[in-house]
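Sorry to interrupt, but I need a hand with the structure work. Could you add the entry underneath, on a fresh line?
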Amino acid sequence: MSWLNRVRNSLGFGAEKSSTEKDLWIKCPNCQEMLFVSDYEENLHVCPKCGHHGRIDADTRLSLLLDEGFELLPIPEVTEDPLKFKDSKKYTDRLKAARAKSPHADAFVTGSGTINGKAAVVGVQDFSFMGGSMGMAVGEAFCQGAQKALDRKCAFIVVTASGGARMQEGILGLMQMPRATIMTRRLKAAGLPYIVLLTDPTSGGVMAAYAMLGDIHIAEPGATLAFTGRRVIEETIRQKLPDDFQTSEYYSKHGMVDMIVPRKELKERLATVLDFLQPADEAA
């Protein structure tokens, strides 16, 4: 090591620069604009230049949608690694790594409270936890949230963000699709609203199941919504797909999404929807 590098290291120049860049700036993945982290977070993780809606974690999402004082439901305990699965890593090691970066034990977090005074249970998938993948814990948490809504006689709102079923749990992960479907039917039979908020990205088995079973489907602008990949579809039908294919805007244009709502307006819009779908005397 040269004397110049030794001096730089002793003074901490390199560490200070790296820390400053990391803490103060973030690059928008859509327009590549460099943004102050403080401005980005104050704007609810939405780029002020191009309107790109960044991904947010479950706790941030719940705090944006629910009134203060909501109850956080415990994530249900399930059998871990039932298939003793191993690819390049053991499934148990992947779970440990994901939990080390998250305050929660799995990818689906549920809050029970109110939205502008209207009773609601909100379940949120966190894409940062193993891509929001749907395994037994996610399925059980979904069912728990739906049951809480049934008990409270209020709406169940699910915010989706997932790459699909969790491959490390195989058929047990896929079985969460019919389990969740049954709970949505129970909500319907009870006359309770089931509302889906589609966020970036929602795909695979989640898109094929409870993400598309809502009474009302709301999406954030520019979200990627897909069952399977664009390339696979193009090779199958041998046609070039539109540039906006598999986006919120495309789904809205073709009747699969009821409304596209910017993040800043979501809480008010959900409160308005609940006013229509959930009379005051039915809320608990």
